[in-house]
Every structure is written in C-alpha cells, then in structure tokens.
Amino acid sequence: MRFENHIAIVTGGGSGIGRATCVQLASEGAKVAVVDIDFEQGQETLAQIQHSGGEAMFLKADVSNAADVQGAVSRVVEIWGRVDVLVNNAGTMSFSPVVSLHEDAWDRVLAVNLRAAFLFAKYTLPHMKGADGRKSGAIVNISSVHASATTRNVAAYAASKGGLEAFTRALAIEAEAVNVRVNAVAPGAVDTPLLWSNPNLQSGAEKLEGAVATTQSVAQTICFLASNEAQFVSGAVLSVDAGRLARL
C-alpha cells in the first residue's frame, strides 16, 4: 500500500473532496487526521474510515485560526509522532458582485482558502523533515480552475485560488530544503454541495462545461501527488477538469 505507516492531515475532511481523500488515504494504509469545523460531518468521515478498518482521528478546528491550527498539528504529532502528508483542502465560497461583496465575506473566503494553507504549512513543515531514513513528505493544496479562468460573482474565491497557486510554487522552493514536495490540484466542476450552491447554476445563467467529476476521482489525483509515484513532481498545478481549461 502506498501510504503504509504514513501520517496524513486533511483539512475540510468532513465532506466532499476532503472526505473522499481521507477515505482513500486510509484505504491505502495511512493514519489520517480528519480536520473540520463541523463536528458531525467530521465524525461521519471518522466512522466511515473506522468501519473499513482504517485508523483515524477527528480534530475540530477553524482552519483560519492560528491557535486552532497549531493545536491540531500538535495533537497529531503528540499521538503519531510526525506528519508525512498534508492536504490543504478546506474551502468556502461567496457569491456576489464585487461592488456588493461585504468586506467580511471577502476576508472569510481568503482566510479559509489561503490563510489556512499558510498556517498549516507553517506549523506542519517542522514535523515533516525527511530525516531518519523516512521518505520525503508531501503537501497538496486544493486549488480550482477559477485560479486561471473564472466566472461572474466569485471574485473572492478566484483571488484566493490564484493566491494559493502562487503560494504553492513559493512553498515548493522553500520546502525542498527539508525534502518535502509541494503541489496543487485544480479541479473543475466536482459533484459537491459547494458546486450546486452556485446561484448562477440554479438560475440557468451559467452552464456547466464538460463532465462533473466525482470526489473520488479528485481524491485519487491528490493521492498520486502525495505518493512516491510523484517523487519528482513539485511546484506543479495539476488540472482535474476534463479539459475545460484546454478548450478556453
């Protein structure tokens, strides 16, 4: 199994892509820390992993809060000793034109989608050094096609994902010194509540282009980048969008 004896942290692990990633990592041998602000959803992911014979823990945390992040990482290290894989998946969206977008909504999207990735990298990297003969660590950030080609009324989301991709490249350069690879996945349309909550889709003002991916298909890509199969891949952004960006 690719992740046997690996320790993984997945943010936003209570639902959607995060849950599918937690389940996939656990099925391949990883011990998984499921991090989410929603207690019930996090517990559901935990139960699903344990029911299948995997090992996991749930940590309730606001991923944009430094004290919560530091506490979650410390707990994982206290129990399991280190971290091998970090998946920065937690995300949120705000649907509004810029002229009517409240400052608090802008700040919250940037905090969850971008600040959280910085915080988890900051507090996790010291525990990911490839020492004592261990294989290299891996960080996978979950971006979006909106970082490259976006639509109306999602400026905060697009800005956060564009920043996340720039952060991925910068962090990859720094993390190389401690034998940690950093990459990003940029999904297109994925069958999650976040997709279907888009009022532009509900009103018919926008149409989906191409196939809608399953959360499992995105999770498989994340796990590829986190695995040693991608040992020479770092600083990359891998689109999982059924060719949407290629057709633009």
| Mean pLDDT rating | 92
The radius of gyration is 17 Å
Helix-strand string: EHEHEHEHEHEHHHE
Strand content: 15-25%
User: What is CATH's topology name?
Assistant: Rossmann fold
| CATH class identity | Alpha Beta
3D structure, described in words:
- This protein has a single domain (7-247), classed as Rossmann fold (3-Layer(aba) Sandwich), CATH 3.40.50.720.
- A seven-stranded parallel sheet has the order 3-2-1-4-5-6-7, sandwiched between helices.
- It has 248 residues and is α/β, with parallel strands linked by helices.
- It has helices spanning 16-27, 39-51, 66-80, 103-124, 155-175, 193-196, 199-202, 215-226, and strands at 7-11, 31-36, 55-60, 85-88, 137-142, 180-187, 237-240.
- The protein is globular.
Could you list some keywords that capture this structure?
248 residues; alpha/beta; Rossmann fold; seven-stranded parallel sheet; 8 helices; 7 strands; globular
Could you give the topology of this structure?
Elements (H helix, E strand, L loop, with lengths): L6 E5 L4 H12 L3 E6 L2 H13 L3 E6 L5 H15 L4 E4 L14 H22 L12 E6 L12 H21 L4 E8 L5 H4 L2 H4 L12 H12 L10 E4 L8
Parallel strand pairs: 1-2, 1-4, 2-3, 4-5, 5-6, 6-7
